[in-house]
Write a structure and sequence with these properties.
The chain is α+β, with helices and mostly antiparallel strands. The protein has 15 helices and 8 strands.
Length: 418
């Protein structure tokens, strides 16, 4: 706060130093030194002009009569100029106006500056940030998350059987990364529901695993299996169960969970494609033939239509991208429709990103990599998450290339869309 006011005062003083001197000096008499210097300059100019006339006379440019006439004109102009400057009156009104204006400006500039900042700037929050911070933080909420947690704790002391309240408190602890407290609170919330809520059981397992270094073995896995008995197609529980069996090396059970998830995800979605790859990996670990549904992701599409490489962000743009900004990596036809033939969606935190584009990532069956001979590959960082380019997005677009087994392509995002 003190820094703000120091800077504000310095800016106001700078403005006054710029505006006041001309007003204060308005109507003041010239000093003797100024008058003497001005007279000296006038005499010098007069002598030079006379000498020039004399030179013109000597080379017959001017006749004697013309010389005398011109010299008299110079003398008359010289005498009139000096007399005007010597007798120029100093206006008392000018002095009063100048000094009055200086006083008014000295008073008004600070008042107007502070008033305008209060109205058009941050208002009370800018002038007294410490006093209004609670209201600013609480906009749209009744206080900060920590304040809400304290209120919820007080509420639960008076209402210990409020299962929904305990669940809300547990999720708040999890958000605050207090995983030990979150797991204990989830246990209480689930017990109040007689362990019949699949979501609470899965959240309890997740918090318990996080508190144990992300280890899903033991109690967390038992909780997840109980959640799946209640709700067999619950996505979070299937994810956690697959993770638990993968960590323990029980790949056969992992394969079952992954296939159940594949049935749930929309075909062609990012999760669907990732699960295809997971299934192919597990089948290879088990020495099983890769299923047709998984082989799309495990191997390049028919005809060798596959492009792989790595995407990086130029160092000069590091400060222009947030880790949560959306990253699109895509291929589209070099000529013709601009719809992506294959696309991967990630975030900036995944950079540098190794990618593979193939026919399995086509948005439409009739528009895929193998349908075109030449494509361009691009990468774009979008702050809005919009699939259409927007001003301020960061991007790179390659030169046209073939689609048959391109590997090692390097894309460096270095352009800002205007």
């Amino acid at each position: 706060m003190m820094v703000f006011w120091v800077v504000a005062v310095l800016l106001i003083v700078a403005a006054l130093l710029f505006l006041l001197p001309p007003l204060v000096q308005r109507g003041q008499k010239s000093t003797d030194d100024d008058t003497f210097a001005r007279d000296e300059l006038n005499v010098t100019i007069f002598k030079d002009q006379v000498e020039e006339l004399e030179r013109d006379l000597s080379v017959n440019i001017l006749s004697p009569e013309q010389f005398e006439t011109a010299k008299h004109d110079l003398e008359r102009s010289f005498l009139q100029g000096n007399q005007t400057e010597a007798e120029e009156p100093v206006s008392q009104i000018d002095r009063v106006i100048g000094r009055s204006a200086a006083v008014v400006i000295t008073v008004l500039i600070p008042i107007v500056a502070v008033t305008l900042y209060n109205v058009l700037g941050s208002g009370e929050a800018g002038l007294n940030p410490e006093e209004v911070r609670p209201q600013v933080q609480a906009e749209g909420h009744e206080g900060t998350l920590e304040e809400q947690v304290r209120k919820l704790q007080d509420h639960l002391q008076e209402n210990p059987d409020d299962g929904d309240g305990w669940g809300m408190l547990a999720r708040s602890y999890y958000f605050l990364k207090q995983y030990g407290a979150a797991s204990e609170t989830f246990a209480r919330a689930s017990a109040l529901q007689n362990d019949s809520d699949a979501e609470l059981l899965a959240d309890y397992a997740d918090a318990l695993a996080m508190a144990n270094g992300r280890n899903m073995s033991g109690r967390p896995y038992e909780l997840v299996k109980k959640a799946l008995k209640i709700q067999p197609r619950f996505q979070k529980a299937l994810w956690l169960a697959g993770t638990a069996t993968y960590q323990s090396g029980n790949f056969a059970e992992t394969l079952g969970y992954w296939k159940r998830l594949l049935e749930i995800f929309p075909q062609g979605s990012e999760n669907y494609l990732q699960m295809q790859k997971n299934i192919a990996e597990i089948q290879q670990k088990l020495g099983l033939p890769v299923d047709a549904v998984a082989q799309v992701a495990a191997a390049p599409a028919a005809g060798g239509a596959s492009i792989s490489g790595i995407v990086r962000l130029d160092e000069s743009l590091m400060l222009d991208a947030a880790i949560g900004d959306t990253l699109f990596v895509y291929a589209r036809a070099a000529t013709g429709p601009r719809m992506p033939l294959a696309i991967v969606r990630k975030t900036v935190k995944d950079l540098p990103l190794k990618f593979t584009l193939n026919d399995s990532m086509a948005m439409r069956p009739s528009m895929k990599l193998s349908s075109f001979q030449r494509v361009v590959v691009g990468a774009r960082i979008s702050k809005s998450g919009n699939a259409m380019p927007q001003p301020g997005d960061l991007q790179v677009v390659s030169q046209p290339m073939g689609v048959n087994g391109i590997e090692g392509l390097e894309l460096v995002i270095s352009e800002v869309i205007k």
